[in-house]
Design a protein that fits this description.
six-stranded mixed sheet, binds zinc ion, 19 strands
Length: about 475
């Protein structure tokens, strides 16, 4: 997924940054690297890599062949097959050997799988790359085959330029990010030697925001993701005949506990990233909310600011863990007292907060008449600390394609493969090189698209980013 940078949702002021760069070159003026990237893009869009189609291994093999043809030694290219539930998939790892000056590698990541797309629902064939009216259309054009192609093309272009990085670079493409994320867990747990890195750059998160007129606003450098966790809240009762009602009742007990959960507010929490992001959002938001965001960024204990932000659905999750009831089941017959009633409570947990601590808080709020149990196996991670070298390189890469646009740290409410890397102790930075208007974000939806300019700009973005981080020291 490409979680929306949270401040993209709420700007209300026109911004002063002016787009000063001309759009992508005319087709006839494209460089060989750009032509090659477009060719790869069309080939991988044509592979329906959603779960159950078993096409990810073919995509990994196709890309592996391109790396071999470009001169990467076969021993440095690894396709790791993976058999998941109803999913024969794979991941791809390519090592770009550096001068080996003792620095740990930098990892660049994206995902090869896509969300299901039904031909009959789309205006165009989702598995044919169509260029029309300044956009590329097709499933994965934005999420995340553009990320795959931007990183792969950067490796191919640098190789063709004779570039030797100061330290090893590792490319990692996962094969089931949209569903189980098992290829990423597998690579991190079973093949750590292949992907061990000082830090990772993730093409599937962060990225640039445009306003509705196409004016660039800011670039999100994503350093943290909230943990997704579901809890089952269950009330039990011996039940009986409904003509013999009693005061204790599983449905009433559950309902009462859910009302108490609704009232429970998790403590206000912050980190360097959220303070910086909320400061920027405050500057771009008018009225009471904008003032509150700015005040909170200056003093996260400001009670008035907290009260205003807590009422806003977009921002309340930026200052605390949030939990909300999302599903309900209960009873077994219309004329019977319920023996059980259960609700799903979905939580987005602030980075650094333990899942068990959230469960305990919910249990305490709900009361002893119900049981609160974690479902599934969620993974939690801390925020990645801001690194001056990464921030500086990202800023240069952004300036190369959109001069004057600020880089702002961001924390997502959703999760990507970055979560798995962070939880394995590899700091991860979401740096999707695309700039997008809110109304162009069709990731996961119908008629997914990416602007042609953004596709070519992103190639340049990654080239600058990698040479800044792994080229000769300035
Ligand atoms: Zn994605």
């Amino acid at each position: 997924m490409r979680p929306k940078p949270v401040i993209a949702l709420a700007f209300t002021l026109a911004c002063a940054f002016v787009a000063a760069v001309a759009g992508a070159a005319e087709p006839s003026q494209r460089t060989p690297a750009q032509v090659k990237a477009r060719e790869l893009y069309a080939r991988v869009i044509a592979m329906p890599t959603s779960k159950g189609n078993d096409q990810v291994p073919a995509m990994a093999e196709y890309l592996a062949g391109e790396f071999r043809a470009a001169g990467f030694p076969a021993a440095d290219i690894t396709v790791v097959p993976f058999e998941g539930e109803g999913d024969r998939t794979a991941s791809l790892v390519v090592r770009y050997r550096g001068k080996g000056k003792g620095e740990k590698p930098i990892l660049l990541m994206a995902h090869m799988d896509v969300v299901v797309a039904k031909r009959e629902d789309w205006e165009r064939d989702p598995f044919t790359l169509v260029e029309e009216n300044g956009y590329f259309f097709g499933r994965g054009t934005s999420d995340d085959k553009q990320g795959v192609i931007a990183i792969a093309s950067t490796f191919l272009r640098l190789k063709a330029e004779g570039f030797v990085p100061r330290r090893d670079l590792i490319l990692f493409f996962s094969g089931d990010e949209e569903t189980a994320q098992a290829t990423t867990v597998n690579i991190v747990r079973q093949h750590r030697d292949l992907i061990d890195a000082e830090f990772a750059l993730n093409a599937d998160a962060g990225g640039g925001a445009l306003d509705a007129n196409g004016k660039p606003l800011y670039f999100s450098l994503q350093t943290a993701e909230k943990t997704y966790a579901d809890f089952a809240v269950t009330a039990k009762n011996p039940g009986g005949h409904s003509s013999l009602p009693r005061d204790d009742n599983a449905i009433y007990d559950l309902a009462a506990s859910l009302l108490r959960i609704r009232e429970h507010k998790f403590p206000v929490t912050w980190n360097d990233t959220t303070l910086a992001a909320l400061k920027q959002a405050g500057a771009m938001t008018s009225g009471e909310l904008g003032a509150a965001l700015g005040k909170f960024a200056a003093d996260p204990r400001d009670a008035m600011a907290i009260a205003v932000i807590s009422k806003d659905p977009v921002y309340t999750g930026q200052i605390r863990t949030t939990c909300v009831a999302t599903m309900l089941t209960g009873g077994h017959a219309q004329n019977a007292l319920p023996q059980s009633a259960s609700a799903n409570v979905n939580c987005r947990i602030f980075p650094g907060v333990k899942i068990e601590d959230v469960r305990l808080a919910l249990q305490q709020a709900a009361g002893s008449g119900v049981e609160v149990k974690l479902t599934g196996e969620p993974m939690s991670s801390d925020a990645s600390p801001l690194r001056p070298d990464v921030t500086k390189a990202v800023t240069r890469a952004v300036q190369a394609i959109r001069p004057g646009v600020p880089v702002v740290p961001a924390q997502s409410n959703g999760a990507t493969d970055g979560l798995v890397f962070r939880s394995a102790g590899i700091p991860t930075y979401g740096v999707d090189g695309n700039f997008m208007k809110p109304e162009d974000d069709f990731a996961h939806g119908l008629n997914e698209r990416l602007s042609v300019r953004s596709f070519y700009d992103s190639l340049e973005f990654w080239h600058v980013l990698v040479t800044e981080l792994a080229g000769r020291r300035r």
